[in-house]
Specification:
By secondary structure, the protein is mainly α. Helices cover 62% and strands 5% of the residues. It has one domain: dinb family like domain (Four Helix Bundle (Hemerythrin (Met), subunit A)), CATH 1.20.120.
């Protein structure tokens, strides 16, 4: 049965998976390629992923009813490995936090102050949709640049995630029901 809670918890897991696929592709690039101006809105691959982290932290705080300010003009995590690990922690922290919320919470609205201090109100589902599409947008930008720089294309389509999850679930099912005589 469909629920907003299940939908967004699964999408949180997808975010983690898609980031890992992207990270695997980016391993083929030099540190200079990651940090140099590649014509992106935030110039570099590194700054773009740092922005994903900052914006993710911002929206998670808003979802929790907390106030947080971010400066997307500055790179908060200059160390590439630490940035990757921080993104990993954020996606898993968000997923665990969403799993802990009551299903009715996903039907509600949240009041928060925007980046200019103006009072705003949004449906939870719209906030989460914005966060996830923001990340997908930036992953797509980074994938295009990484491919242009010679990295393998990171295939991050949601359908590929679902196929991999089904395969893993089938492996678990087969492993938990071994044939008689084994």
């Amino acid at each position: 049965m469909f629920s907003w809670k299940n939908h967004f918890v699964i999408l949180a897991d997808y975010q983690h998976w898609a980031n890992e696929v992207l990270f695997a592709s980016l391993e083929h690039l030099t540190p200079d390629a990651l940090s140099s101006d590649q014509g992106l809105f935030l110039r570099s691959i590194h700054h773009t992923l740092d922005n994903m982290l900052a914006v993710g932290e911002l929206w998670l705080a808003r979802l929790k009813g907390e106030t947080r300010t971010v400066n997307t003009r500055e790179i908060e995590h200059p160390d590439w490995r630490e940035l990757q690990n921080a993104l990993r922690r954020l996606t898993r922290r968000l997923q665990a936090w969403l799993e802990a919320q009551d299903a009715a919470w996903f039907e509600g609205e949240i009041e928060f102050a925007d980046s200019d201090g103006r009072a705003r109100r949004m449906w939870v589902r719209d906030m989460l949709t914005h966060l996830y599409t923001h990340h997908a947008h930036h992953r797509g930008q980074v994938a295009a640049v990484a491919t242009r720089l010679g990295a393998p294309y990171p295939e991050m389509d949601y359908v590929l995630y679902r196929r991999e999850m089904e395969r893993l679930l089938n492996e678990v099912r087969v492993g938990s029901n071994p044939p008689i005589g084994e």
